[in-house]
Amino acid sequence: MTTASPSAQRSRRPRVIVVGSGIAGLVAALGLVDEADVVVVTKAAVDDGSTRYAQGGIAAAVMPGDSVAAHVADTLAAGAGLGDPEAVRVLCSEGPARIRELIERGVAFDRAEGDPGGGFDAGLEGAHSRRRILHAGGDATGLAVETALVRAVRASAVRVLEHTMLVDLLTDGAPGAGAGAGSGADGRGRVVGVRVLRAGRIEDLTADAVVLATGGAGQLYPFTTNPSVATGDGAAAALRAGARLADLEFVQFHPTALAVPGSPLVSEAVRGDGAVLRNSAGTRFMVDVHPLAELAPRDVVARAIATEMLATGAPVLLDATAVDDLEARFPTVTAACRAAGYDWAREPVPVAPAAHYWMGGVATDLDGRTSVPGLVAVGEVACTGVHGANRLASNSLLEGLVFAHRAAAALCAELHSPSGMIAPSQPSASDARPTAPSHEPTRAELQALMWQHAGLLRTAHGLLEAQRTLDSWSVDTSRSTDVERLETANLLQLARALVSAALAREESRGAHARADFPLPSPDFATRPRRTREEVSV
């Protein structure tokens, strides 16, 4: 690759592509736009990612009597020993400042007694020791945040390409240079742009850096609270480019999705306000499972519900009939219940677990750097170490907010250093996609396999069966411009990685439960290191 002189590099404005338009992607774009030409690439409409569907709110230590230390303690406890203490400290200590910035951007968090000048009407959710969940519009927090950030991006110089799917990351292919000299750990080279599918055509977009903010892979499972766009495109592309992924076995299943087609989420805040879980006989069963009953950590509640469902053959019931002002407090859930034919103010409603959040992802340091130069990851696609083995409720929006802000600041500094700019090159995309399928699975086949063998409760026998089946499947994406086929190929690649990680972790910890290894093991009680050099190993 021909390298331009430092003076020529500094004479042009750096270019950054942000892939994804949820809270993490938009915060990163806004943090970069004053220092770089920023393009946001998003697969659907700009406001159609997971952020808008986040009901519960954002956890932050901003209430009287709360503290950063208490938030740190709760987050580490929920993470079941695998939370990175430094990452958790960053999350909880920087969170309040980022909340203030959201308010300045026009996010109107709900206030006590409806007084705009009053204190926050903070909620309580599972495994929190304080009422610290800030919400907006009752249960429409994500939509309020997304609306404010989209408004800010539209008013900025950020360019937005909607209905544009990430197909692959482009690398310069420079072999053997070493992580510090512009080459990834596997010698594939620095990321220098993205290959996308736009208006039915494949295009290459070059950049000095790429920020992945593509969210999770909830579509690995048939029952999920995630939108249809959550197909793991960014994590799969990063894997093909040689990036290190971590904690893939840890998938959080939300305990309470309505047991109707589409699995609409019923916010944990409903239980925080007093709703209880009953089995088909009407018995409140969580009091015998955990001291916190319905407010136990999500993995505990989800597995308890699954156990009851196996025993009775019926969904469990969420009884919110004693909660005041349901429609005002939870308008989104009320509408979903009504659409399904339920009046949850008068009757319990059937609920069941659904795939909700992936703690694993592209391993990063505290500034979003990955093991591949030129590639940054933020939000659910990233694995910062904050969530450990189980995410504390309402920490996800906060993670996207805090770490996207940090990543943008760090990237701005690097892009303006003499070594931070890249020269024009002839980029190449990964050739790791399978091209000779044996059996090409349908999306439903893949999801059913993952739900059966890599869902809430796992065994070596089931995981090995899943591994054999996944290895016999492939999806031919050569020259493909079919979005669903490209998505299914990404999901298949990530399913293999997830199952492999789940097989290797011979213990039960947090969201990863093995029936054949039902207890935590000290052999697995370690946390991947997070410095720049160690992420690059």
Describe this structure in words.
The chain has 537 residues and is an alpha/beta fold. It has a domain at 255-353: Succinate dehydrogenase/fumarate reductase flavoprotein, catalytic domain (Flavocytochrome C3, Chain A, domain 1). It has helices at residues 6-11, 23-32, 68-78, 85-104, 141-154, 233-240, 268-272, 298-312, 326-329, 331-339, 396-415, 443-453, 460-471, 483-504, 532-535, and strands at 15-19, 37-41, 58-59, 133-134, 159-161, 164-171, 191-198, 201-206, 209-212, 245-246, 251-258, 276-278, 316-319, 349-358, 361-363, 375-377, 382-383, 428-429. A 5-stranded parallel beta sheet has the order 5-2-1-9-16, sandwiched between helices. It has a 4-stranded antiparallel beta sheet with strand order 8-7-6-18, covered by helices on one side. A 4-stranded antiparallel beta sheet has the order 11-14-13-12, with helices on one face. The chain is globular. Residues 1-5, 175-187 and 529-537 have low confidence and may be disordered.
